[in-house]
Amino acid sequence: MSEGQKFQLGTIGALSLSVVSSVSIVICNKALISTLGFTFATTLTSWHLLVTFCSLHVALWMKMFEHKPFDPRAVMGFGILNGISIGLLNLSLGFNSVGFYQMTKLAIIPCTVLLETLFFRKMFSRKIQFSLTILLLGVGIATVTDLQLNMLGSVLSLLAVITTCVAQIMTNTIQKKFKVSSTQLLYQSCPYQAITLFVTGPFLDGLLTNQNVFAFKYTSQVVFFIVLSCLISVSVNFSTFLVIGKTSPVTYQVLGHLKTCLVLAFGYVLLKDPFNWRNILGIMVAVIGMVVYSYFCSIETQQKASETSSTQLPQMKESEKDPLIAVENGSGVLSDGGGGVQKTAAPVWNSNKEF
Fold it and tell me: What is the pTM of this model?
């Protein structure tokens, strides 16, 4: 099996794991929050991250992956920023209507595209932009209802969008810059994210719910769903870093909106949630946008791969003609063939994203 085929299978596996785990945790958290009344989302997220870190520590002890330390300042900054973005998203939901909160999540994609264009000179073709527009339109139709604006809520939403975009771009950038896997990055950043939310979580939850997380009555049923939610979160957190590392922050956000549509459809089919023609139309439009986006990304990836191979072939032929050039470039050709050349990839969860 070629490297390209392995990469494609790995990407499909990461996307599938992200969808399944995210939809599962939504179902679990819906039962925990709506049915059992445990509304402390930020504190629950900190527990998710603590369990994730402990699970990865056991995996490291079992030598399932290799610990690869790198710039501690980058890890600390990234972890704290990720924790702050989660807290701001929860605050945005608390101080805004559900409709405006959905608009906040929709704004993450165009903001990410803008930041990557300005600071990383990344170009998005008109076809990609068109498919993203279709997707956002569909999700907007399906999820956005009332739009009640207020100054504090708008500021919190703006900060949430910016911090989330930067954190997701950093996830992709750090993995490529320091050549670390998603597991290695998650293992090192988890403690900083968990501590940030563990300290601020009870305060934020108390502010939003007027309840004390430590005074809540923890029945056996509540404890069961909390433990289940934490176990599923290991897969959710891991798949987030995996998807962003293998693809891009924009693709991760596209996947996130697809999961939103799947959750809406699941709620209607199995839980008999209220549903109307807007939800159905929006989901259909969003799925079309997702399919078109995936198709254009696949086409562009194949084009880039063919361009890369066509530029490398003349260089190899020239090196074969001149023995001196072959000697000087031999190590470079061998290292490139062994993985030195960065493969062109087709265009991360924090548990709060699903609340």
Answer: 0.71
